[in-house]
Amino acid sequence: MTITQLKYVLAVAEHQNFTKAAQKTFVTQPTLSMQIQKLEEELSIQIFDRTKKPIELTAIGKKIVNQARNIVNEADRMQDVVDQEKGFIGGVFKLGIIPTVMPTLLPMFLKNFTKRYGKVQLKIEELTTDEIIHKIKDGHLDAAIAATPLEIESIKERVLYYEPFVGYIPEHHRLFDKQKIEGKDLDLDDILLLEDGHCFRDGVVNLCKASKLQAGDSFQLESGSFETLIKLSNEGLGMTLLPFLHTLDIPNEQKSYLRYFTEPSPAREVSLLYNKNELKLQIINALYESISGVIRGAIAFQDVKIISPKAKN
Amino acid sequence: MTITQLKYVLAVAEHQNFTKAAQKTFVTQPTLSMQIQKLEEELSIQIFDRTKKPIELTAIGKKIVNQARNIVNEADRMQDVVDQEKGFIGGVFKLGIIPTVMPTLLPMFLKNFTKRYGKVQLKIEELTTDEIIHKIKDGHLDAAIAATPLEIESIKERVLYYEPFVGYIPEHHRLFDKQKIEGKDLDLDDILLLEDGHCFRDGVVNLCKASKLQAGDSFQLESGSFETLIKLSNEGLGMTLLPFLHTLDIPNEQKSYLRYFTEPSPAREVSLLYNKNELKLQIINALYESISGVIRGAIAFQDVKIISPKAKN
DNA sequence: ACCATGTAATAGATTTTATCGATACAAAAT
DNA sequence: ATTTTGTATCGATAAAATCTATTACATGGT
Fold this sequence. Notes:
Low-confidence stretches of chain A: 210-223
Oligomer: homodimer
Order of helices and strands of chain A: HHHEEHEHEHEEEEHEHEHEEHE
CATH topology of the largest domain in chain A: D-Maltodextrin-Binding Protein, domain 2
Largest interface: A-B, 25 and 24 residues
Shape of chain A: elongated
Number of strands of chain A: 13
CATH architecture of the largest domain in chain A: 3-Layer(aba) Sandwich
Mean pLDDT of chain A: 84
Number of domains of chain A: 3
Number of helices of chain A: 10
Radius of gyration of chain A: 24 Å
């Protein structure tokens, strides 16, 4: 049994296809076939059921794959040990970010971070919370930023900041004249929300549920970005809710439409997520420090009420 | 980096000597030299300081060795996964037992166990508690039986049984006429104990401390086995204490010298110890079941007061 | 039934790697 | 100084991993 063989097994298990797995591992397909056969022989078990199309893991194959992942993870960690000792922070690092955090948070810390940690090659991907969960679990992401708490077994969460929600209330709206709004003022049929998969909505939906309605399910409109939402709102289609950081760069003439919540303000918790195996922990720590450092200045400390994206489950 | 290289590193780290490590790993010394150099090159670090005699680990070398152990442990566990799936219980299993448990417990379960699990090649070694701790930590033992609680980080304890102490009181001794004895009856200067390293004594010493004396340290006599102790006791050199199982096979004419404690009787806790990495867990489980099964019949359930071998620290 | 397609297994050649035996070299012990 | 003990180096060899080319085997479509 070699580490290489185990990596091959993981690749085939992932792609359910020897040929594709071969490309990903930069070897030819016969190499994979042979090495995996050799491993199966050594262990005297069948890892893959090759009669199925596409290829499938056998019952024991699944356990083998799990253990293989453990071994490969520990092996990868060897480089971490070396890097840590050398004080070296570098290498490829894959970070996932949910869409409603990406545009505001990324510009705030990216330049600073890459300047400080030039050896780290950040690969950032915009992903939904579900995609993030899967990709952290199977090691395709080193870390991610999403609304929490998720409380997923095998994923660690480190809170970056609490981001209050702010109401965006167009003229002629029934709440326009209030200086501060409260959760119970909200009406689900009255709020423009982002499309499904954006976990921001989860927070808001729960906020509304918690404060008022039974949520009659059907919303009036769904859109892809807060910019659109604001425009729709301006057209008189209803109010909307924006995470605090998004309110920082809306045009001045529209700022008068912002209505903060009375404290404790509803807020979302945004955290850094990573696999509990803690691979590349040094980079994760560096990221955490960078982000929470830059955020400390941006979000005024205030009394907030956390809205869980998971509460609806 | 290969698993083989990591095993070589572990061997050299253990023996502090390439030549000996080579013998243990069944390769030649140049093979070790080359493979370890290759690994050092790949990681761009020095694992060993070869200027020192005997050879030493560098600072980072120690961390590398730790991680190497993690990887190799996970790799070894692959066979466990396969065995578990196949319901196969077998292979070499190294078990350590402390001297004061060995002669009584071993005969009770060994025959039964080997009959039931013929595929397991038990290698049993008589060791002191300290030796056991070290050897479990570095993987030279798969499990051990000793008096607990030890509460060692990285070692798991599963209690096998509680073994009451029984007084062996010769004629003309001041306690001879009592039907049952109590902890406070004991006097350290008056008891024959086993030599240091036998953790049984720890228990007794603590028993005495707890019940009476400040333990003026110097004992009158120290010996190597309970048999000797009994004989010395018969010669009028004082009373002694025996673990319950040892009292089962003393000659009938001497049984009249046994004095049980009033309940709750002082007792020692005897446990199965194994590394928290849980390698070969199936065999450990099998052992546990075998031993606690045979013990259930042998030790009458009674109210006991546990004497910790560690309390003196 | 036959063929096209996608995919894995096999065979043989080639390259790479691990290991060995012999020996050189260094440091400590005598 | 010489012997002992132990590691590094060298060249040869055996073992292995990988490659290219090809075959085998399904599956679905015609």
